[in-house]
Design goal:
The protein has 220 residues and is α/β, with parallel strands linked by helices. 42% of the residues lie in helices and 11% in strands. The chain contains nine helices and six strands. The longest helix has 18 residues. It starts with 5 loop residues before the first strand and ends in a 9-residue tail after the last helix.
């Protein structure tokens, strides 16, 4: 097994406690368009990109005129109404700093839009620490397709065998697996261990991994 050289970090639900806020923004944007979707149904899809979430919960294609309008409004609602209420998980920035201190290349690998990702990374105290960031704008297909992971590997200049992905949803783990990358999972995004198959290790959140970093898959 190759020595770990790069860490690919999901952001929503991994560094920042924003999954519920994203789901609420989607529900509100759909409602404004006259489309009723259940919060719990949307919440289970957070971690996918909007291109997959929208048809899954509503049957509406994101690239349709209606889909584009709903997706655009969802972004406005999230940034204006919900992002101000969101906070980073404990030790999110300290974890990134600790990974950097170990000589690891750290790149964000998120399904968020680029404009949202920048704000979220600032909130986590990680934006100035990262070696790069990839968003849904850098990939043709969002998670659970592996495109974002491939883009992050390229940004990190690392082969799949030398990288580990950290995420909080089954979609993060599937995307990593399809890219040939090992994964660490966090419970703080709201998923149970049973829904996080294939993870090399599972931790409560950034604070838990930071406290046990030496014994983790990143400790060697």
């Amino acid at each position: 097994m190759s020595r770990v050289a790069a860490v690919l970090l999901d952001v929503d639900g991994t560094l920042v406690d924003s999954n519920d806020a994203h789901a609420a923004a989607w529900v509100k944007a759909f409602a404004e368009a006259g489309v009723t979707v259940r919060f719990d149904q949307v919440r289970r899809c957070i971690g996918m990109g909007g291109d997959k979430l929208m048809p899954e919960v509503s049957g509406i294609a994101e690239d349709s005129d209606q889909g584009q309008a709903i997706a655009r409004r969802r972004g406005e609602i999230f940034l204006d109404q919900f992002l101000p209420t969101v906070s980073a998980f404990p030790d999110a920035g300290r974890l990134v700093a600790a990974l950097k201190a170990r000589g690891l290349t750290v790149v964000a690998a998120s399904s968020a839009k680029r404009t949202e990702l920048h704000r979220l990374l600032q909130l986590a105290g990680a934006d100035a620490l990262l070696d790069g960031a990839t968003s849904s704008d850098d990939a043709e297909e969002s998670k659970p397709d592996p495109d974002i992971v491939h883009a992050a590997l390229e940004r990190a200049n690392a082969p799949a065998a030398a990288a580990i992905m950290i995420g909080d949803t089954p979609y993060d783990l599937e995307a990593a697996a399809r890219a040939g990358v090992r994964a660490i999972a966090f419970r703080c995004g709201g998923w149970s261990d049973a829904n996080l198959p294939g993870a090399a290790a599972i931790y409560d959140g950034p604070w838990d991994l930071l406290a046990r970093l030496d014994e983790s898959p990143l400790g060697g």
